[in-house]
Structure formats: structure tokens, C-alpha cells
Design goal:
- This protein has 118 residues and is mainly β.
- The protein has no helices and eleven strands.
- Strands 2, 4, 5, 6, 9, 10 and 11 form a seven-stranded mixed sheet that branches. Strands 1-3-8-7 form a four-stranded antiparallel sheet, with no helix packed on it.
- The protein is globular, with a radius of gyration of 13 Å.
């Protein structure tokens, strides 16, 4: 069982930066792939980034490539999403998710709101 808690969301002007954190409980955190998803009003949930258990490999969606970066600190049971050059279209609720055995969403956090003003 893994419990995830996101933090770091807020209101930022276009061009600004935020760092989201996903803190996890559970001794097996380091064995999970951790992903960041986002969902804007009226839109489907979108996979933004994913990072493997060791942190060696990551996935970044084309829509945020070059602006967003994910990293993890297994000693702190925490995954981060650094978001730079934010755009109004990045406005969404951001969720972290933990997955194993090929899946990405075995466990989900409650989400954190990111709002980018123009």
C-alpha cells in the first residue's frame, strides 16, 4: 500500500515556475514508477511525466518537454515536478500516481491545483 500527498501548487504568472512534490508513505516506494498527470476542466487526464524506480529513465510529454522535469529522492520517499516557463494552458489539477508491474496508476494522490495567469 502506498499513500501519496501532493503539494506545491498555487497561482503563478505566465513565465513563472513552480515545484510540485509528491510525498509517499510505504516502505516499497522505491520500487514504483511515479507519474505526474494533470487534468484541466473539461479535458481528459493527461500523462505529463513518469520516472522509473531508480530515477534513471524518465518520460516527458511533448506538451511540456523542455519546460518540465521530474526527479525523485527515494531516501525521502518524494518525487518532484519542476515546472518552468509556465503557460496558461498548464492550468490544471496535478496528480501523482504510483504504479508497478507495467501500470502507472495503482495508487493516486488527491491532487494539487496549478493556475497560471496570463
Amino acid at each position: 500500500q502506498v499513500q501519496l500527498v501532493e503539494s506545491g501548487g498555487g497561482l503563478v504568472q505566465a513565465g513563472g515556475s513552480l515545484r510540485l512534490s509528491c510525498a509517499a508513505s510505504g516502505r516499497t516506494f522505491s520500487s514504483y514508477v511515479i507519474s505526474w498527470f494533470r487534468q484541466a476542466p473539461g479535458k481528459e487526464r493527461e500523462l505529463v511525466t513518469a520516472i522509473t524506480s531508480t530515477g534513471i529513465s524518465t518520460y516527458v510529454a511533448d506538451s511540456v518537454k523542455g519546460r518540465f522535469r521530474t526527479s525523485r529522492d527515494n531516501a525521502k520517499n518524494t518525487v518532484y515536478l519542476r515546472m518552468n516557463s509556465l503557460k496558461p494552458e498548464d492550468t490544471a489539477v496535478y496528480y501523482c500516481a504510483a504504479g508497478a508491474s507495467g501500470g502507472l496508476g495503482d495508487y493516486w494522490g488527491q491532487g494539487t491545483q496549478v493556475t497560471v495567469s496570463s
